[in-house]
Each structure stands twice: as structure tokens, then as C-alpha cells.
Write a structure and sequence with these properties.
The structure is a single chain. The chain is α/β, with parallel strands linked by helices. The protein has one domain: Alpha-Beta Barrel (TIM Barrel), CATH 3.20.20. Helix content is about 40%, strand content about 10%. A five-stranded mixed beta sheet has the order 7-1-8-9-10. Strand 2, helix 4 (about 85-95) and strand 3 form a beta-alpha-beta unit. The longest helix is centred in the middle third of the chain and has 21 residues, at about 220-240. The chain starts with a helix and ends with a strand. Residues about 375-395 have low confidence and may be disordered. Bound molecules: iron/sulfur cluster. Keywords: 4Fe-4S, Iron, Iron-sulfur, Menaquinone biosynthesis, Metal-binding, Oxidoreductase, S-adenosyl-L-methionine.
């Protein structure tokens, strides 16, 4: 039965939650081989994409207090902060200087900020940085806005969109099974609200992605249920919202350093991460764009992930504060050169994309890596090979 499930997935057939659960009991190389084959079929087999962007955390003050979070502060702690518009503009100018195209802007759930802070901030960014896309506010923040600002969800999203919001990142997905969420963070947004908010965002044409974090001690069945829930929402969005579903899927492992879960939640090893990534590729038959995670896994495991179902290397971030606060690999950003190197070295063509996973440029690999054009190493083809580059750019780092 277990081997038949793998054959079914390889044929492109949809797996039930029960069948997905069986995959965890198969040798990883077998699952990975099917995952890589499906990845080659469902996204450009030669290309691995990434985004030049910046994370901006406008405030670390948060009233939710998740047990797994080392980022948040109470307003009374000396290192709590809220950025003003000029400080945020300065960060965006740094992004513009390296050719970046979007900011991923999230905060804690700060009870002191009025709606006008957010709408004014969106307008300020659009006025001063018109080429930058703004993907901002986790479902947790949106839920708080709903509860605090006297607007229903439609009115709230319309207000934010009118002010300049382009997308709503799907942060806070973790495991969308409330039994797991209640243990990890009792005050955390529940799965029903997470889907309700992302569904409304998709209906209104906003960018969204789906996410997953493993390592809370969740069961394989709960992981499978999480994947099926995301797949169901994707089906609905593709069917009812003109194809505006989740643009991609990002998955990483729980980091617990400096958190209340340290020593209590098991986390996940590299093997588990790669296994989960491969199974996600098999389960999410309606999601072509699956990301590798270098902030949680480091560059080396993230590079390996390109043979376990991943087709995308995420983004440069320039400044990552949330995963790194709880451990990660002590890296808050990646340079274009680093991402180009690990993608090229794995045998794929690096491509710079926008947040909707549309390719906007192919970096000149030899130039970015400082290689001579006749250097054979630059022409090496392991898994994907190099293709003609229709729009070569020299991406600085
Ligand atoms: S994960 Fe987000 S909501 Fe939870 S405590 Fe941290 S900042 Fe607040």
C-alpha cells in the first residue's frame, strides 16, 4: 500500500491525508526522487528563482506572546521599538540600492498603534518608493486590526489596499491544526481565522503565500492535515478568485533558542526538513512554487533542498529578525552572490523573480561570481543546466 502511494503521487494523482501520512514511513531517497521529478514537471526544470527583497519589522512590541517567539517585547522592555516612517524609508533606500523590488513588512501585534499609523505608512512608502511592492501584515496582525479598529474584514482590507497594500504574507501558518496551535501559543490566531483572512485577501486579488513550520511535536497526521487544508484553499482560490491562489509555499523548522519552548519542543533535523519538503511537493499538486529555506536551514541544506522538491530559494531578506532571534543559522540576510552561487553550483539557472514568482531577470552568473566566461566550471550542468539568458543583468550585492 505504501509503495503504491508513491506510484500514485508520481503519476500526478491527488493523495488523501491518509495516503500523505504513509509517505513519512518510506525511505527518504524514494520520496525525494518522486518529489524532484514532480518539481521538474510543475515548474521550469532549469530555473531556480529568488527574490531581492527586504524584511522590515516595524515594531517588536506584541501582545500575543507566542511561546516559540524570541522576537517580541512588551512595551516596557528597554529594547522594544516602533520605527517611524523615516527609519522605514532609510531601510527601503538600502533595498533600492541593491535592485530590490519588494518589502515584507510585519510587526508584533502592537496595541498602541492606531489604524492611521498603518495607512499613513503605506501611503508614505508608495509616495516615496513607487517601484517597491508592499507585502505586509500577518493574519495575526490583521485579526487584531479587525478587533480594534471597528471595521469588518472587507472594509479593513479595502482600506489597506487603497492606502497601498499589495499583498498579505501567509505568516503564522505553522501547523494549521488547532490542537497543535493551542499548545505552542494559546493566544495565537486559530486556523479558521487564518484561512478566513487569507481567503478574503485572495478574493480581493492580494498576493499571498502558504507557510508551514514543523518541530512542535505535531504528528505526521497533523502535518498531512495541514497540507490538505492548504491544498483545499488553493483549489478554492484558483477556482473562484480568477486564479489568485497562494503564489508559493514556504516551509521551515521551528527554532526555539531564547523561547519558552526551548527544551520542550523537539524541533526538526535536516533529514526531517528535507522529508517534509519532499512530501509537501507530493501533496501540494496545485502549487508549482515551493521554496527552500536558508534562514532556518543554512545555505547548505537549502541547496540540497533543490533536489527534494524545492524550485525557489526564497529571498535575500537583507534583514531577518524573527527566525534568527530564535536560532536559525545566525544569518539575517543573503547576498545575490550567495544565492546565485548555491543555485548555479547545484546545476540550475538562477533567476530573479518578483513576489508573484514571475521571472524579471537572469543574473549574469559569470559576472556575479567573478568567473571568466571560458571557465568550464561556470558551464557545469548537474541537474538543470544553464540556458540562454534572454535578459542578463549584473546584480550587485
Ligand atoms: S510570533 Fe508574532 S504574534 Fe507571536 S509573539 Fe512573535 S511577534 Fe507576536
Amino acid at each position: 500500500m505504501t509503495a503504491e502511494v508513491l506510484q500514485k503521487a508520481a503519476a500526478g494523482d491527488r493523495l488523501s491525508a491518509e495516503e500523505i501520512e504513509l509517505l513519512y514511513h518510506l525511505p527518504l531517497p524514494q520520496v525525494a526522487a518522486v518529489a524532484h521529478e514532480l518539481r521538474l514537471q510543475r515548474s521550469d526544470p532549469q530555473v531556480v528563482s529568488f527574490l531581492i527583497d527586504r524584511n522590515i519589522n516595524y515594531s517588536n512590541i506584541c501582545r500575543v506572546g507566542c511561546n516559540f517567539c524570541a522576537f517580541y517585547r512588551t512595551r516596557r522592555q528597554s529594547d522594544s521599538y516602533t520605527l517611524d516612517y523615516d527609519q522605514i524609508s532609510a531601510k527601503i533606500r538600502e533595498l533600492e540600492a541593491v535592485g530590490g523590488t519588494r518589502i515584507l513588512m510585519q510587526g508584533g501585534v502592537n496595541p498602541d498603534l492606531p489604524l492611521e499609523y498603518y495607512t499613513g505608512l503605506l501611503r508614505h512608502i508608495k509616495a516615496n518608493h513607487p517601484s517597491i511592492r508592499i507585502d505586509a501584515f500577518s493574519p495575526e496582525e490583521v485579526l487584531f486590526f479587525e478587533q480594534s479598529f471597528g471595521l469588518n474584514l472587507d472594509e479593513l482590507l479595502d482600506t489597506l489596499i487603497e492606502a497601498g497594500l499589495d499583498g498579505l504574507p501567509g505568516a503564522g501558518g505553522e501547523i494549521l491544526v488547532d490542537e497543535v496551535r493551542a499548545k505552542a501559543a494559546p493566544a495565537r490566531i486559530r486556523s479558521q481565522d487564518w484561512f478566513r483572512i487569507l481567503d478574503a485577501a485572495q478574493r480581493k486579488g492580494l498576493y499571498t503565500i502558504s507557510t508551514m513550520v514543523i518541530g512542535f511535536g505535531e504528528t505526521y497526521r497533523q502535518r498531512a492535515d495541514h497540507l490538505v487544508s492548504i491544498r483545499d484553499q488553493q483549489d478554492k482560490a484558483l477556482r473562484e478568485y480568477g486564479g489568485n491562489g497562494f503564489s508559493g509555499f514556504a516551509m521551515w523548522t521551528l527554532q526555539t533558542e531564547h523561547t519558552r519552548l526551548h527544551g520542550k519542543a523537539p524541533g526538526a533535523t535536516a533529514h526531517e526538513y528535507l522529508q517534509q519538503l519532499a512530501i509537501a511537493r507530493l501533496a501540494l499538486d496545485n502549487q508549482p512554487n515551493i521554496q527552500a529555506s536558508w534562514p532556518a536551514q543554512g545555505f547548505k541544506v537549502a541547496q540540497s533542498a533543490l533536489y527534494y522538491g524545492a524550485s525557489d530559494m526564497g529571498s535575500t531578506m537583507l534583514e531577518e529578525n524573527v527566525v534568527s532571534a530564535a536560532g536559525g543559522h545566525d544569518r539575517h540576510s543573503a547576498t545575490v552572490r550567495e544565492l546565485v552561487r548555491i543555485i548555479d553550483d547545484a546545476g540550475f539557472t538562477p533567476a530573479i523573480r518578483n513576489s508573484r514568482f514571475q521571472i524579471i531577470a537572469y543574473p549574469d552568473v559569470a559576472q556575479v561570481l567573478g568567473r571568466h566566461a571560458d571557465n568550464n566550471e561556470a558551464q557545469r550542468s548537474v541537474g538543470g543546466g544553464l540556458v540562454a539568458q534572454p535578459q542578463a543583468v549584473s546584480a550587485s550585492d
